[in-house]
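Hypothesis: this fold can be encoded by more than one sequence.
Test: take the structure tokens below, design a sequence, compare later.
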């Protein structure tokens, strides 16, 4: 097989492995694996101009920097993942007192969440190695992304999800014709069961914070932020990026993308990355604030199901993403997460609780003086509010029911 990468390296012990090996985590200590590239060769073979001149309006414009040989060759949703829009809403800038604020809206992906990036790359990888069945554990978004991408590529998908997952996300899984198994337990229990099933039945496992190719898919968001914003931004202050954190793989993927750009010599100033967790699911934040890298599990309890995790599987790299970039972790109560949903809605952006958590984290960082009014800031909305309509309804006042008369309209307007 003609590999585009040098191999794998354990993020804990540093042990390296050959690219021909089909492994998920380090056999020695279970550490997450980073995919290694020959940056000297990439510098010779790939130029900034070649990326910028690409006509591909998707994550596949960065194929030369990804660990698969070819992009999908079919006109399906998997081909349209990424290249999501960047907004700079004046309403929210004025409300927060920020001169430079952007929101990158990942709800515009085919299955309406950031997780499409990882699933698209994993499905491309599965096609290369001849894997017919792909399995993952998910609270909903990763499973929906895998189910949609697998359906587009004519692969079979098996999804383990906790029975408490929002109905809208379960509906997506079923519509995409995945084999769905609802686990009477937590996400972490579903995760462990999916690995046992993958080993027992020979399935290819997509699990977040387990399969090293998921990180490579997620790093494409950092490549887009670089191309859409950082190349043209001459601010003296580094960009501050706020992202919600569950398993830790999204924030780690962003960090990996920016590190790759640095290694290529294409990125001047490294952004500061801020992780945001719910008070009820703050294992990574706890570790960051303790000043070490020992991840202790919690008993997760948060309305933001996408970031509800007892034991983050990519916790160490998630801690480093903030620590090594001069960022930090912020924790917010569920009440502030839910309150952030209609605030973002004022700018025409409908975020699910996990996406709103990042915005709530920015608000908390402003209150604490961690962010100043002149700092450039980007908030990552990781998923659509349509993923969890019940959560959205609890965050707003219910609409009044009125008689079909003009006087009833006037009374309702007066009350408002």
């Amino acid at each position: 097989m003609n590999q585009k990468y040098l191999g794998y390296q354990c993020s804990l012990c540093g042990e390296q492995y050959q690219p021909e090996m089909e492994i998920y985590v380090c056999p020695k200590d279970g550490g997450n694996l980073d995919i290694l590239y020959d940056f000297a060769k990439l510098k010779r073979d790939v130029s900034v101009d070649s990326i910028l001149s690409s006509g591909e309006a998707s994550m596949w414009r960065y194929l030369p920097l990804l660990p698969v040989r070819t992009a999908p060759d079919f006109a399906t949703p998997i081909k349209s993942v990424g290249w999501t829009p960047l907004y700079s809403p004046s309403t929210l800038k004025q409300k927060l007192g920020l001169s430079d604020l952007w929101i990158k809206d990942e709800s515009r992906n085919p299955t309406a969440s950031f997780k499409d990036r990882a699933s698209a790359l994993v499905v491309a990888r599965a096609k290369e190695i001849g894997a017919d069945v792909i399995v993952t554990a998910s609270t909903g978004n990763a499973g929906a992304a895998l189910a949609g991408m697998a359906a587009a590529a004519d692969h079979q998908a098996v999804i383990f999800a906790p029975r408490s997952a929002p109905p809208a996300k379960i509906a997506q899984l079923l519509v995409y014709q995945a084999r769905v198994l609802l686990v009477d337990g937590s996400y972490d229990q579903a995760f462990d069961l999916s690995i046992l099933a993958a080993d027992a039945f020979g399935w290819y496992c997509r699990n977040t914070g387990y399969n090293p190719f998921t990180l490579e898919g997620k790093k494409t968001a950092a490549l887009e932020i670089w191309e859409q914003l950082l190349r043209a931004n001459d601010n003296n202050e580094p960009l501050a990026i706020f992202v919600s954190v569950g398993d830790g793989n999204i924030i780690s993927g962003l960090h990996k993308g920016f590190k790759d750009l640095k290694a290529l010599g294409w990125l001047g100033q490294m952004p500061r990355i801020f992780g945001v967790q719910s008070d009820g699911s703050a294992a990574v934040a706890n570790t960051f604030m303790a000043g070490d890298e020992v991840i202790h599990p919690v008993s997760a309890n948060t309305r933001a199901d996408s970031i509800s995790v007892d034991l983050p599987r990519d916790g160490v790299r998630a801690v480093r993403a903030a620590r090594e970039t001069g960022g930090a972790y912020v924790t917010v109560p569920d009440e502030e997460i839910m309150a952030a949903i209609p605030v973002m809605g004022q700018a025409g952006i409908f975020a699910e609780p996990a996406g709103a958590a990042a915005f709530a984290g920015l608000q908390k960082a402003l209150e604490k003086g961690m962010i100043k009014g002149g700092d450039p800031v980007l908030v990552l909305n990781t998923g659509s509010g349509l993923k969890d309509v019940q959560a959205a309804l609890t965050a707003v006042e219910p609409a009044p029911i009125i008689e079909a008369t003009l006087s009833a309209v006037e009374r309702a307007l007066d009350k408002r």
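Residues 249-264 form the longest helix (16 residues). Residues 1-36 form one domain.
Hypothesis status: open.
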